[in-house]
Design brief:
This protein is α/β, with parallel strands linked by helices. It folds into two domains: about 5-230 and about 435-455, Aldehyde Dehydrogenase, Chain A, domain 1 (3-Layer(aba) Sandwich); about 235-415, Aldehyde Dehydrogenase, Chain A, domain 2 (3-Layer(aba) Sandwich). It has helices at about 25-40, 45-60, 65-75, 80-100, 135-150, 160-175, 190-195, 210-220, 245-260, 275-290, 310-325, 375-385, 400-410, 445-450; strands at about 5, 15-20, 105-110, 115-120, 125-130, 150-155, 180-185, 200-205, 225-230, 235-240, 270-275, 330-335, 350, 370-375, 390-395, 415, 430, 440-445, 450-460. The strands form five sheets. It has a seven-stranded mixed β-sheet, sandwiched between helices. Strands 7-6-5-8-9 form a five-stranded parallel β-sheet, with helices on both faces. The chain has a three-stranded antiparallel β-sheet with strand order 3-4-19.
Length: about 475
């Protein structure tokens, strides 16, 4: 076993220290989950709901503790992690409503018998969590999975183990039976052991497209195991026919889309496509707003708009990707600046890539937005669709008819109008296509992949006849 250490990206202070799970530890966790699952499935739905609601109450009671540990492990501003803690608690009631709506029990009359539709849990589901929302995103899998009657083996990001440990503590406080939720800490090797374990009945994953593709290939050999993938995107934000009166509102939506959470949201805008006629005025205001954004540590006063990226390795990667754009001819409207090479604080960057057709179609997971100017609306839509990803897209301005054209042509799971690309409701499905997902959206539709439907025809008495093909 290897030591696992979580550090504060702003200070380097140790936040959590533990041991990474090896293959034997993963085996034991899966075995405990499998042993506990049948009893949890037999637990009445009303009792499972009561435990979930107790968990939501515990999260609310410890909301600042949850927010504080997320901030310490990720560097996100305290105001933002408090909203994450609130989302964790809110997920319970949303999941209860979604389960009743999409995965409940229905009986209706057939032709002399009843048509029955019920849902069963898969059994033991593995959850691999990301670092950008280390509580909210895995919670979005865990809550509906437990509600459906599954047991869960959760491998959190190695960058946020303390957050996961606190979540586990709150589940115990809520009265979740022993064994039903197993948390195994570790890095990539632990994640591989969890994902490949034959004792699980599926995997719910949020992370990079590179890892997601590897998982898809591995699961091709076990079609009976559920696999739900959410893998980020190279998301377009199109700004068109925006009048002077709406410029400031558009700027606010652009900045929120591109640089919220230091660009570490899978729905952040990576590509800003602007009508050339309005580009000068709009971009001047965007750049001026970027100059005013506060980049700082989570508990600074005044609170920053954004913190650092999650660690120095992530900052190095973002710097390298921006260097690639500049080598292709990208022109920095606002350059990427790392004020201290020993810390992962990055300034918000805006790089003009107009006229450069060789820009890579990749997700730069940091505070970087690429700009393209277009003179033709059809070409602007084509530019937006020039990606193998398909998670999120948004259009600012324009008419209803233009938006309908944009919406109909855009292949993405989230398509917004006059809202940011990273605006998504938990009361709606959330997921993407292409390299962004495998058509198993989460949020409200997580109920769909946490249980499978069982259809039946039921009659109170034997009712069978053979009328043809019999000898006299």
């Amino acid at each position: 076993m290897n030591d696992l250490i979580s550090t504060d990206p702003c200070t380097g202070d140790v936040v959590w220290r533990g041991v990474a799970a090896d293959a034997a530890t993963v085996d034991a966790a899966v075995a405990q989950a499998r042993s506990a699952q049948p009893g949890w499935e037999r637990t009445a739905l009303e009792e499972r709901i009561a435990i979930l609601r107790a968990y939501a109450s515990a999260v609310k009671a410890h909301a600042d503790d949850v927010a504080r540990v997320i901030s310490r492990e990720t560097g996100k501003p305290f105001w933002e992690t408090r909203t994450e803690a609130a989302s964790v608690a809110a997920k319970v009631e949303i999941s209860i409503a979604a389960q009743a709506d999409r995965a409940g029990e229905t009986l209706r009359d057939g032709d002399g018998f009843a048509l029955a539709l019920r849902h069963r849990p898969h059994g033991v589901l593995a959850v691999l969590g990301p670092y950008n929302f280390p509580a909210h995103l895995p919670n979005g899998h865990i809550v509906p999975a437990l509600l459906a009657g599954n047991a869960v083996v959760f491998k959190p990001s190695e960058l946020a183990p303390a957050t996961a440990e606190l979540m586990g503590q709150l589940w115990r406080e809520a009265g979740l039976p022993d064994g039903v939720l197993q948390i195994v800490q570790g890095g990539g090797e632990t994640g591989k052991a969890v994902a490949a374990h034959p004792g699980t009945d599926g995997l719910l994953f949020t992370g990079s497209s590179t890892t997601g593709k590897l998982l898809a290939r591995a699961f091709a050999h076990t079609p009976g195991r559920i696999l739900a993938l959410e893998m980020g995107g190279n998301n377009p934000l199109l700004a068109w026919e925006i009048g002077e009166a709406d410029m400031d509102a558009a700027v606010a939506l652009i900045v929120q889309s591109g640089w919220l959470s230091a660009g570490q949201r899978c729905t952040c805008a990576r590509r800003l496509i602007v009508q050339d006629e309005i580009a000068d005025a709009l971009i001047e205001r965007v750049a001026a707003t970027l100059d005013r954004l506060i980049v700082g540590a989570p508990f600074d006063d005044p609170q920053p708009f954004m913190g650092p990226v999650v660690d120095n390795r992530a900052a190095d990667l973002v710097e390298a990707r921006v260097a690639d754009l500049l080598a292709l001819g990208g022109r920095p409207i606002r350059p990427l600046v790392r004020r201290d090479p020993g810390l992962p604080f990055l300034s918000p960057a805006l790089i003009d890539m107009t006229g450069i057709e060789t820009a890579p179609d990749g997700e730069i997971f940091g505070p970087v937005v690429q700009l393209w100017r277009e003179t033709n609306f059809d070409r602007a839509i084509a530019r937006a669709n020039a990606t193998r990803f398909g998670l999120s897209a948004a259009m600012l301005g324009g008419s209803r008819a233009q938006f309908e054209q944009f919406r109909a042509a855009t292949r993405a799971g989230v398509v917004n109008w006059n809202r940011p690309t990273n605006g998504a409701s938990s009361a709606m499905p959330f997921g993407g296509i292409g390299d962004s997902g495998n058509l198993r959206p989460s949020a409200y539709y997580a109920a769909d992949y946490c249980a499978f439907p069982v259809a039946g025809m039921e009659a109170p008495a034997l009712d069978g006849t053979l009328s043809t093909g019999l000898r006299a």
